[in-house]
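Provenance and format

Records in this collection were gathered into a single text stream. Each protein contributes a sequence line and a token line. The two records reproduced below are adjacent in the stream.
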Amino acid sequence: MRLIIEPADGVAPLLSAIKRAKKSVEIAIFRLDRKDVEMALGAAAARGVRVTALIAFANRGGERSLRQLELRFLEAGITVVRTADDLTRYHGKYILIDRRVLYVLSFNFTRLDIDHSRGFGVVTNRPNCLQEAAKLFEADCTRTRYAPKVETFVVSPANSRHVLGTFLKRARKQLLIYDPRISDKEMLRILQERAKAGVEVKVIGQVPARTSFEVQKLAGTRLHTRTIIRDRRQAFVGSQSLRAAELDSRREVGLILRDPKALKKLIDTFESDWTRTSTKSVSIPPDAVDAPVEELTAASTKEIAKAVAVFTKELQPLATTVKKAVGQAVIKAGDEVLHDKDVKVTMKQVVKEAVKEAVKEAVHAAREALPPRRAE
């Protein structure tokens, strides 16, 4: 078993995997804007490898790009299958090479995720994981039901709530968690209970409720991975956050691993990220630890609404700033840049992500500025 760490490892491990394929490449795609990955898949098909791309029926704001990708794949001799629309999203990211090696990723095949975000990928040749991944791929390609048989292969909505809930409950000493946003009431309650029982719980990400454990934002790098390290002996790496939608109504894929070398890399990376994050943490007084998660979440929601109202006015000048920046880019690159479809799509995605991150930063800052409130 091997671990891919982004942005450090870059796209090279994925390109090498595709280039080594002899018989088949089966890839599940939610987003893809890497030309090098697309070209590697096309080259594999050209040399006789059976390449099958399972492409999400939709993603937020990117349906047009997905349909264009499908057409380019078909022209390159790649078999294209579109997921069903029975789930709100098909968000899993994984690659099967010759059905002998499996890559399960927490990141998309995009420049933003691979080059500028914290993400992990697990590479394994364990037979049970290979069999489950192949079974899942075939089920989603044929739009038939997937029934999980291996708990270390975590699939939403099939078994993730049960498996991840149990995984958290079994922590005895420590939980180190990367998660962009934990909001599921059941999972929050489990984390509170573990913290109250003496388990050290550290979260890099966001929790929309006051907690009895430490929560910090990732500094210097965009956070995209979903990872849980339990007692330094096991870890979960996947695409599902501890949120109701990602546990119950979306296709998400992850793995639970025990490999000592991979675990050490995960732990070292977490500890390095933790030391360089903001020293500020979110907590509540000891006498409020038992406050219902529902009340805490409701209070947090009201605070967020106030913060959004305040910062909406401040963010209005952002549109003008973006227009000026685009204008300057056109002057430097020439008018023809506006007619390049790939450039236009990329620019839209970059601007969208920049605005989204700016809003998140503003809301977080507003919440920290609010006076602490005690649970009643």
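Adjacent record:
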Amino acid sequence: MSKKQFYASLALAMGIATALGGCAGAEKQKENFHIYLAFGQSNMVGYLGPNIGKDGNSGADTTWVGENGYDAPPANFVVMAAANDDNLPYGRKKGQWHPAVPPLNRAGNGISPADFFGRTIAEAVADKGIKVGVIVVAVDGVQINMFSPDLDDFKNYITSRSEQVWERQQGHAYVDASVEFPIPDSDFVTMDYPYKRLVDLAKKAQQEGVIKGIIMHQGESGVQDGTGSYNEYVRKIYNSLCKDLMLEAGKTPFLAGEPVREDSLNIDAIRSIPEAFVDIPNTAFVISSEGLTGWEPGSQEDWGNRRIHFSLAGYEELGKRYGQKMLELLYR
């Protein structure tokens, strides 16, 4: 071999080694980015807003974020915007990662268990070099059918909710922009809907990281009459997420939170969820709300004397319980 050929071979070998090293580094970086999916209704949306612990939804006012110290999440905690937010507070773009400053769901919302869930995990794994990301798709007051994997089922559900205008308004964030606002209570054309939005964003996130688990808080409104049992419907969503995202069923934890104990409606349905997972034990778990306080009653929280939203302390503790359970399952 001539000297010229020798140096050419050496350069080629070094280039291959560098490329392989870069691939290994990128794969390691991907393995150290842990992503969690979150969905549900108002408690997952984040109910408490500007006068946190005292009043209702936050609107465009975000002063509560800094006033309560939530403007500095752990550096390794991020959120992928599930909807475009061209207004206050942050100008987030759908499908892009941002620092996990609340509201995590959409502009105008408050703080939720997803915030404290992510913070709990991020703080616990920071010394392992792990980054934590969440994707939140949630709508106030909806039954579990809102998150149907089937487009026709979703359309049948949302068009039947003619009196629940807020559902069709908030749900609009997860359908095609061409659809009339709010979502009509008659037939409409769309290929985008909450379940598909969650899956599409999760697939994008999988290019950079690994989906480790799913959390849900949707216990207050149950399932639409005539569409089956609640726990089996939840299992259907879990099965579809695993199939569509190529996750291994039984090795992807699913955590569901109990409602406020003072609002015991549907709490038994939540507690029954693990019964639908008997073939894959140690997968679905119920996060207890025992001892957690509801939001202070007042003129806006008048639901037939039901207290369906947690207090700030309740959100914080519930989110920590979600996080501690996920840490127990995945990191210890």
